[in-house]
What does this fold into?
Amino acid sequence: MKLTLYHLATSRSQRILWLLEEFQLNYDLVICRQNPPNAGMQQLKQHSASAKFPTLLIQADQQQFALSESSAIAEFLQQHLHKAPAADSALEQQLQFSFWKNFADASFMPNLALKQIFAHIVQRTPLPLRPVSWCFKQGFSLGYLNQAIAAQLDSIEQHLSRHAWLAGNSFSIADILVWFPLQACAAAHPEFMRYPHCRHYLAQIESRPAFQQALRKGQWSDAQFKQYWAKAW
Ligand SMILES: N[C@@H](CCC(=O)N[C@@H](CS)C(=O)NCC(=O)O)C(=O)O
It folds into this structure.
């Protein structure tokens, strides 16, 4: 099976690059740029006009498939090419694994994406009307979004105060998927200092050689990431 990852630097696709490194898989990496589109981007559009990042091109038995959605790619790679948490592992560990793996993109990321959407709406509102969209953004943040994100961070913090990793004692794809939204909070949430276990957990991730290798290969920029997320708060 031949794997090709289409990757956008400093984006969610960093998680899949890291996963490929953790699993020590053979793969080709194509770094895409959007404006103006580079050769990688044009190549990706030939496989799938609406493809997002990450997209994994899977070539096997003279067939090829372009798979998008980070959680789907992570699950596919785990099921087909690497081992899932052992079927005989404790039920609690299996349930934690399922919960956190799905929590990342189904619950945590959407709230952060909403932060970005509201910030973009304010930026794009014509100047004379901007106070109106700013008040709308603030109202939604204060009335709902900030509490929702705080509750999610509290539940991660509480879990990490009792477990080294999200699925219990072992590192898993749940950790890879949750890393991106949690790192976004670390980069921009004004009260992230209140979450010492989350901060320790992120430091633990940063010390993994595969994580560092993926940052280098993926051309990750901390400064760009911080700037992007700071605008959302
Ligand atoms: N739910 C998808 C979201 C993918 C997504 O929106 N990726 C962004 C990068 S973070 C992207 O492709 N942006 C460029 C575009 O929409 O054209 C996933 O997690 O894989």
Remarks:
- The longest helix spans residues 91-124.
- Residues 8, 11-12, 52-54, 69-70, 105 surround glutathione (CB under 6 Å).
- DSSP finds nine helices and four strands in the chain.
- The first strand starts at residue 2 and ends at 8.
